[in-house]
């Protein structure tokens, strides 16, 4: 049975380093109502990895989620560099749209070209976010023209070129659809995501399939596989089949299923089509493998690491 998950949106953020991604996601988290009044926002969200900080590029795809009205918005980070093209593909396969974040002074930068070209190739819906609009040197109109030129150059289709634009200041916690408009919060950004990013859809009653995009490790719960449910549903504790890369099948009982809520993983009873979840209890699992129904273990076709198709110059 085909279902549309109107209560979920899955988006990836594409941004050049320093264009304000972390600050904006921080602000979205603060406003999404996930944090109780006495809860401190932990340091920075997306760039807690020291190695990443050192190298100034995002190495690991991280998951976070915000709630707006009755919709859960899963936000996944994309590695901004073509060296991680395999990971870029995997991350983009989880989402139905992208936020292309561009600094209102600097304009589009080469690091985001590759990821954007992949997103356009995969026919994902883009929303252009012009960030740091409070900068005194902001030149948003020119920057939009530059983004437009980039879309044309990358061969975007008519629908993609007709992208919605949201102007934001992560620092000020505001978003607006029109520069002349007054704004007090990020609501216009949340509304645009819900309006333009398609809700995930697919077969919700068919045999379960989850494609593993990221692995994590926790001292208490051990190895954690993270990915999107692409078909069916699953309950905590159920037995599943792992479709290994070599073609073999292994059976495991999953322990817990977790959804992302803000920066945390929260245990849930069930995951279904369209959800991005973490599961524990599978000792032997690799990125790119499929967690599947134990009686119908079908692997999801998966693109392995490819050479960049767009030059970085
Ligand atoms: P990231 O590398 O894309 O995650 O960027 P960060 O969020 O870490 O921001 C990079 C720099 O830009 C930091 O010095 C921030 O203080 C600054 N910055 C981020 N958002 C804004 C904003 O909305 N307005 C202004 N003026 N500066 C910002």
TrEMBL record:
Gene Ontology cellular-component terms listed: cytosol; ribonucleoprotein complex
Catalytic reactions of this protein: GTP + H2O = GDP + phosphate + H(+)
Compartment(s) where it occurs, according to its Swiss-Prot or TrEMBL record: Cytoplasm
Domain Tr-type G as annotated: residue spans: 6-201
Keyword Transmembrane helix: no
Residues spanning the signal sequence: none
Domain of life where this protein originates: Bacteria
Residues that hold GTP according to the record: 18-23
Keyword 4Fe-4S: no
Sorted UniProt keywords: Cytoplasm, GTP-binding, Hydrolase, Nucleotide-binding, Ribosome biogenesis, RNA-binding, rRNA-binding, tRNA-binding
One of the record's GO molecular function terms: GTP binding
E.C. designation(s): 3.6.5.-
GO biological process: gene expression; response to cold; ribosomal large subunit assembly
Family affiliation: Belongs to the TRAFAC class translation factor GTPase superfamily. Classic translation factor GTPase family. BipA subfamily.
Function summary: A 50S ribosomal subunit assembly protein with GTPase activity, required for 50S subunit assembly at low temperatures, may also play a role in translation. Binds GTP and analogs. Binds the 70S ribosome between the 30S and 50S subunits, in a similar position as ribosome-bound EF-G; it contacts a number of ribosomal proteins, both rRNAs and the A-site tRNA.
Subunit text: Monomer.
Name of the protein in its database record: Large ribosomal subunit assembly factor BipA
Organism: Caldanaerobacter subterraneus subsp. tengcongensis (strain DSM 15242 / JCM 11007 / NBRC 100824 / MB4)
Range covered out of full length: 1 to 313 of 606
